[in-house]
Amino acid sequence: MASSRLEKIGNIYTRVSGLIRAGALKWEDRPLFYDIYTAFPPLKEHKYKEDPPNIKLRNIFYEEDKERASKDYSNMLAFDMNEKKPVRTDYVFKQHKAFESKPAKEESKLFDLKNLDFNKE
Amino acid sequence: MLPKANAYGLFRIISNNLPKRFFSSAAVSEIKELELDTPKIVNGRVNPLTHPDYFNVGNLFTVRDLLEARVHFGHKVGSLNDRMKPYLFGSRLDFTIFDLEQTKEHLQRALNVAAHTAMQGGIILFFCRSSINAHTVEKTALECGEFAHTRYWRGGTFTNSKVQFKAVTRLPDLCIFLNTLNNVMLQHTAIRDSAKMNIPTIGVVDSNCSPDLLTYVVPGNDDSPASIELYCKLFKEAILRGKAKRKEFIEELEALEKEQAS
């Protein structure tokens, strides 16, 4: 069967289409993928070594990150990220949100982690 | 390249009974204009290629399944391939995170293509060069009656098959790469060879991989065993659905032939 091995030019579909158009490949001999590709082309076609798009990668940050960065949470135990139940940090941030408007000296009491009873919640 | 008798798909045999406008020699441009929004029904049978989701692969998984299988985790920003940027949601503390909405669309398209290939009697070959996932991939291929190649790739297996196997060899009709890098962090040679031999490829591309030469790209984590297990489960189910339809069609055809003979 006729085919082209220049893989960097176009893609498999354009190369086979070209062969069919030029008469080098009979329509009946088209490869199995041809009809499937025609009906379901890739959502995005990539040219060989095309220039990368000019997109700036955004940073993902959450509201809680400010709190995480401002204090030392290293004494909190490790937890399973796959756990669906609320974890210890959730409790702390919930407390933080509730007392956001309170003056700063109360805040220090609020985050006295050594005296916090996690099992209560 | 392919022995002719084998290369024919089942639907083409069925399509001989369909009006010529679907698959006639002048149909190259016509096929392109097929509207996929409404399934075309001919002789009481839906043409699978005109149905947007014939095998119902849309119900196989949700974005939450992807999230729980850790598909959204990419590599560190330093190893990012700039071509993968459109598929990323962003970077979280120097780790790239995939946009799972996009991954979902691409994965559904890939599953649909795999199911259609299986229905038309195509041979499917799974690839994976990461040693921790190799067994999962080989097991999946075995379970759905297809093939896997998870070892060192000898050059010329596709491109020089006639000499290597000492006979005319039927090459696969679809290659599924669950990991597109070989073990020295270069693109797997089989991707290039598939492109050379006009074999469509589906590839799971991580943030450090290039989408070059792949036909259907699935952006997502290609390292975690949990992710690979999910991909394997989905591809297996899609292929089995395609094969079930194929069996159904063959039985229908045989019944029709018997009827005509008697």
Give a description of the structure.
Chain B: It is found in: Mitochondrion. Chain B: One of its GO terms (biological process) is translation. The complex is a heterodimer of chains A (121) and B (262). Chain A is 36% helix and 0% strand. With 121 residues, chain A is mostly helical. Chain B is an alpha/beta fold. Chain B has a single domain, classed as 3-Layer(aba) Sandwich (Rossmann fold), CATH 3.40.50. Chain B is built from 9 helices and 10 strands. Classes of the chains: A mainly alpha (121), B alpha/beta (262). Chains A and B meet through α1 and α2 of A and α3, β4, α5 and α8 of B.
Helix and strand topology:
The complex is a heterodimer of chains A (121) and B (262).
Chain A: H1 12-22, H2 33-39, H3 64-70, H4 88-98, H5 104-110
Chain B: H1 4-7, H2 10-15, H3 27-32, E1 41-42, E2 45-46, H4 63-68, E3 73-76, E4 88-92, E5 95-98, H5 100-119, E6 124-127, H6 131-143, E7 147-149, H7 161-164, E8 174-177, H8 189-196, E9 201-205, E10 216-219, H9 225-261
Parallel strand pairs in B: 6-7, 6-8, 8-9, 9-10
Antiparallel strand pairs in B: 1-2, 3-5, 4-5
GO cellular component, one term (chain A): ribosome
Pfam family, one (chain A): MRP-S23
InterPro entries (chain A): mS23_dom_met, Ribosomal_mS23_met
Give a brief outline of the structure.
The complex is a heterodimer of chains A (121) and B (262). Chain A is an all-alpha fold.
Please give the radius of gyration of chain A in angstroms: 30 Å
Radius of gyration of chain B: 20 Å
Q: Examine the secondary-structure arrangement and name the CATH architecture of chain B.
A: 3-Layer(aba) Sandwich
Mean pLDDT of chain A: 79
Query: Uncertain runs of chain B with pLDDT below 50, 5 residues or more?
Result: 1-11, 13-37
Quote the beta fraction of chain A: under 5%
Continuous helix count of chain A: 5
Q: Which strand-content bin applies to the residues of chain B?
A: 5-15%
What name does the CATH topology of chain B carry?
Rossmann fold
Based on secondary structure, the structural category of chain A is mainly alpha
The CATH class of chain B, by name, is: Alpha Beta
Helix fraction of chain A, binned, reads: 25-40%
> How many independent structural domains of chain B?
1
The main sheet of chain B orders its strands as 7-6-8-9-10
Which two chains share the most extensive interface? A-B, 39 and 59 residues
Q: Which descriptor suits the 3D outline of chain B?
A: globular
Oligomer: heterodimer
- Terminal CA distance of chain B reads 39 Å
